[in-house]
Amino acid sequence: MYLVTARGPLDGPSVRGFTVRAQREREKELSKQATPRGTFQTIADALKTQIDDNTGMAELPPVADLMDQYGVSRGVVLRAFQALRQAGDAEPVPGGRWRVVRSGEGVDRRPLADRIAAVIVDDSLEVGAAFPSASALAERFGVSRPTATKALNHLEAAGVLASGGQGKVRTVRALPNREERS
Question: Is this structure's pTM higher than 0.70?
Fold first, then answer.
């Protein structure tokens, strides 16, 4: 039995071998599935929820993990990260990682050498005073020890610090002026 409507029979065969009813149901299901725009937005929304729920979350999950979790390409995950960036919830950091940005959180974007030079002023160190070790500075600024050592070498080359050699304590040679810290 055929039910005929203005659009044609609902149970009759269609061009692709589906009945019109089945074709419409299939189209309805396809329209419910995530579009590429919806997919990256879904990922961004899920990450935003994680950021809001987990106050200790400092970095976004790796791209590869999200690709596996959602079954999407790298580009879709990066679009989700860009959506979070535009919303002010995340920002890229060197090395391909993404850092969570929290509202009201002040972020010092100066180069590490400049931030380390500021330790002299912040800790009221005088010329000739012992300077904190690379390990202590690495922990204080949340970087690796080799990274802190490179920044200290930069300050030594600039004449702000003096090195006593291997195993010796670095000392303050000169107080940093505005030009060296900018």
Answer: no
